[in-house]
Amino acid sequence: ETHSSFAERLRRGDQLFGTCIISTSPHFAVATSKTGCDFVFIDTEHIPIDREKLSWMCRTYSALGMAPIVRVPEPEPYRACSHLDGGAAGIVFPYVESIPELQSLVGAVKYKPIKGQRLQTMLAATTDRSVPAPPALAAALQPNTALAAIANIESRVALDNLDTLLSGAPMLDAVLVGPHDLSLSLDIPCDWSHHDFHEAINTIITKARAHGIGAGVHYSFDQAVQYQQQWMSRGANFIVHSSDMVLYANALRADFAALRSGAPPRQAATLPDPVV
User: Fold this and answer.
1) Residue 238 forms beta bridges with which residues?
2) Which run of H or of E encompasses 198?
3) With the CA atoms of 85, 87, 90 and 94 taken in that order, what torsion angle do they form, in degrees rounded to the nearest 10?
4) b or e along 90-111 (b: 16 or more beta carbons within 10 Å of the residue's beta carbon)?
5) What is the mean pLDDT of residues 194-223?
């Protein structure tokens, strides 16, 4: 199955595995394709990647059978549309806290390229049955149904209002927890074992799945595999596991530790006798 059905797979609860890709090298795409990734998460919020290079990355990963999911720097629809034009299979809006932000995301992804008042009318038709659906609705949706609209849930405000938020954006495909920002918002910075941290994540996963959309966590800190397995048991299906940079550093650190532990003690170099 290709990324043409990625949004549908998110919604129906298929377990989808991927990682955050920081390297822009084309060689990395080939290596990643051999790992079993269903998708790659490309983060333009924190990683500087220009538009042309990003498009090459999206097209390359897509051609290799991995859906490129791009997080934009802010909840802004125009840049989201440009990245979809460049080949992204889905868009993540960061730090979403309001229904207008969610509707802006859905509008950019599901109704591209319609904008302005026409778009607002079409969005209203999805949430208010008293507003008649414009005749162009089905035609506008058809080419975009495979594109994924994903919201980052990263704050106490979003957590406390999650049911309202999800009810206000019925065409959302998934939520993705940003654990670092969430821990800060909960006043337990980077305390990954804290009860409140896990309770918040479990709540987000449970509510998202109850609304019929995908849910996951982008996690690259302590006990990443164990925590991801725990969240999967709660219903998480959008598994953004670590990043190429973290996995590389962890593997190299472990290899060097093993090599050093088995290496003979260092001795002073013995210099040859000088030639007289």
Assistant:
1) 16
2) helix 195-210
3) -70
4) bbbbbbbbebebbbbbbbbbbb
5) 96
